[in-house]
């Protein structure tokens, strides 16, 4: 039986993937084998003894102490692309709300209560000029980060008749395949910023992107550009953005992350982190996260981890030994020697590494004793060991 502790509300579509005979799932569990969560900010104290994996039903893992997990051999998963369409669609809304004062127009009509139909008609026709805007067609969109979301946003904007410029110095081959060849490549952030009427951010919250939209970056924007940030709050220096809004250097800031300094301004539109909050995205993320956890806990396979290598080995015996270790020489050979000393035959095996972590799957012919498992745990640089039967 594996114990899964959930944080946040996880879609039933995902929860129902776990068979009740093999998994117990609850929000109150003391010694969890795995955690399943969305944006809940994990503390180090949430990483209980015996924890094997954490699955983030979503994209961003900035709420998880990933480095600490790697040191402890805890596999961290996310669900790349599972909520990308939801974010793409909210960006479409953001672009339209940026181009036209639809919110102002709606509020204006709301204020007409008490008027008769003729008065409303007169007010609407006289007042509407305050809310006119521009079309997206023909404007330039700069997309910073062309991963699962950025690529979809870029392709969508081309369909709207926009010119699209993208910037992503670490574009993966998979993302490049998804991206239309009509997206123009910017050599650096500044060259994207100074050509764009709208700029949308789709980069992860990591050290390298912290404060990416800084005072210096703001100087590169076209006068009166509109900035959309549905990625994370840390990517934007809010003092720089509010100063730019004050001078008109930026026309609007549209974001999914509320902050006190943004409230009450007419030039900001702020959503309560709604980007991935559609039924479809919640179902997709939860299902993907659940299936990744299940295959890892039941078979030791790893797909879509942010700190471990991808690895898949078809089961060939009833005894599967998995272990992770610091990525240094001789660990695997030392473990194999221990098995050989006990005359235990390895039928199939796979070893993969990523950065400082190596992970191994060994299908063996017979059950290892508890003493042997303990000996493997004692091998220098081994972080953790599991026997999956
Ligand atoms: N508002 C929401 O509800 C919501 C929903 C989903 C994701 N997000 C945020 O959006 C982020 C992106 O999601 P995704 O699914 O597209 O992730 P992704 O990993 O598929 O794509 C991120 C892209 O950013 C690129 N990148 C990294 N550093 C960069 C830099 N310095 N400059 C330019 N590009 C850089 C990467 O190479 C990658 O292609 C997530 O990390 C998350 O923080 C927010
Ligand atoms: O990184 C993500 O996937 C989004 O920010 C969604 O977060 P949520 O699952 O809390 O809506």
UniProtKB/TrEMBL annotation:
<dbReference type="InterPro" id="IPR045865">
    <property type="entry name" value="ACT-like_dom_sf"/>
</dbReference>
<dbReference type="InterPro" id="IPR006139">
    <property type="entry name" value="D-isomer_2_OHA_DH_cat_dom"/>
</dbReference>
<comment type="similarity">
    <text>Belongs to the D-isomer specific 2-hydroxyacid dehydrogenase family.</text>
</comment>
<dbReference type="InterPro" id="IPR029753">
    <property type="entry name" value="D-isomer_DH_CS"/>
</dbReference>
<comment type="function">
    <text>Catalyzes the reversible oxidation of 3-phospho-D-glycerate to 3-phosphonooxypyruvate, the first step of the phosphorylated L-serine biosynthesis pathway. Also catalyzes the reversible oxidation of 2-hydroxyglutarate to 2-oxoglutarate.</text>
</comment>
<dbReference type="Pfam" id="PF02826">
    <property type="entry name" value="2-Hacid_dh_C"/>
</dbReference>
<dbReference type="GO" id="GO:0004617">
    <property type="term" value="F:phosphoglycerate dehydrogenase activity"/>
</dbReference>
<dbReference type="InterPro" id="IPR036291">
    <property type="entry name" value="NAD(P)-bd_dom_sf"/>
</dbReference>
<dbReference type="GO" id="GO:0051287">
    <property type="term" value="F:NAD binding"/>
</dbReference>
<dbReference type="InterPro" id="IPR002912">
    <property type="entry name" value="ACT_dom"/>
</dbReference>
<keyword id="KW-0520">NAD</keyword>
<protein>
    <recommendedName>
        <fullName>D-3-phosphoglycerate dehydrogenase</fullName>
        <ecNumber>1.1.1.399</ecNumber>
        <ecNumber>1.1.1.95</ecNumber>
    </recommendedName>
</protein>
<comment type="pathway">
    <text>Amino-acid biosynthesis; L-serine biosynthesis; L-serine from 3-phospho-D-glycerate: step 1/3.</text>
</comment>
<feature type="domain" description="ACT">
    <location>
        <begin position="320"/>
        <end position="389"/>
    </location>
</feature>
<dbReference type="Pfam" id="PF00389">
    <property type="entry name" value="2-Hacid_dh"/>
</dbReference>
<dbReference type="InterPro" id="IPR029752">
    <property type="entry name" value="D-isomer_DH_CS1"/>
</dbReference>
<keyword id="KW-0560">Oxidoreductase</keyword>
<dbReference type="InterPro" id="IPR006140">
    <property type="entry name" value="D-isomer_DH_NAD-bd"/>
</dbReference>
